[in-house]
Amino acid sequence: MLYSIIVPVYNRPDEINELLSSLTRQTFTDFEVLIIEDGSDERCESIAERYSGKLNIRYYYKENSGQGFSRNYGFERAKGEYFVVFDSDCIIPEHYFEAVNRKIKSARIDCWGGPDRAHPSFTPVQKAISYSMTSPLTTGGIRGGKKRIGQFHPRSFNMGISREVFEQTGGYKITRMGEDIEFSLRIIKSGFRTALIPDAYVYHKRRTNFGQFFRQLHFFGRARVNIRRFYPDQLQTIHLLPVLFLIGIPASLLFLVLRVPVAGMLPLLYLLYAALLFTDSYRISKSLNVALLSVPAAFIQLTAYGAGLIQEMFREIRD
Which keywords does this Swiss-Prot/TrEMBL entry list (predicted)? Predict the structure, then answer.
């Protein structure tokens, strides 16, 4: 057994069905699938059973402990040489494992990750959110670009590790609030080699409306501050840019009302940024609807992340 796929799931049976269906179409099939039900009320055991004749699949139910420790639970029971982690809201292209296998054969890597994309079946809102989370015009652009500074830090929505990595590191140290960032940093500090595999992308559904997206990105902002407990140098200037973006919105409105001469140009900068987002999104999506929705998606991403950073920093000061 070469690959063990570990998927933690919490109250998302429909998503698991889509993910498993996509795995039945893989062109490289030397893998097993471990579904780790993390204390869900809406269990997906019956869905996993439907695929027992199509996939080498095992289903486990456990008490809720969060996604990080649920992945560890799967690692401990996996039989493969490599462990692959997907989020339950991913759809896997049929060539995924072929791309990974080529990379492993051509270069010694201990840990990898891949980008995410929008599937044609996604709603316009999901496509706009996907654009925001992957565009170089937002902080999302650092998540899977081919040109990178320093060693690649995989994220757990699409991540693979060797068995040796798990045995040496012990897996996830925290279960949420930036657990994948902490794990990636510890893998690298342990001397293992990581790599981005651009062709090993997944279709990541993320959230289905802007309210859910705001809450998710707000949590991501809080998680970035939480990582500082383990790695103080990981809260850098670039991570504070969303805070400046957030503060700049009410400031620009105030300058506009007060007709402040030079600073009054700030609202124009936001309008120019919105126009740039619209144009770039339309270039990629060829959809006016998606392009229009990409503007609020990007603004939500930056403001929610900034708000999360501020909240968690104030909580740390208060405690």
Answer: Membrane, Transferase, Transmembrane, Transmembrane helix
How is residue 176 written in tokens?
A: 């949420």
| Short-list 13, 31, 10, 133, CA closest to 79 | 31
3-state secondary structure (DSSP) of residue 36:
strand
CA-to-CA dists, residue 66 to 102, 107, 166, 263, angstroms: 32, 33, 18, 46
- Domain 3-114+154-207 belongs in CATH node 2.30.40.10: no
Rounded to a whole number of angstroms, the CA Rg of the chain reads: 20
pLDDT in tens, 55-102: 999 999 999 999 999 999 999 999 999 999 999 999 999 999 999 999
Q: What is the pLDDT of residues 254-301, one digit of tens each?
A: 877 777 776 667 888 899 999 999 999 999 999 999 999 999 999 999
How far apart, in whole angstroms, are the C-alpha atoms of residue 316 and residue 308? Answer: 12
Give the residue extent of every domain in the chain.
Answer: 3-114+154-207, 212-318
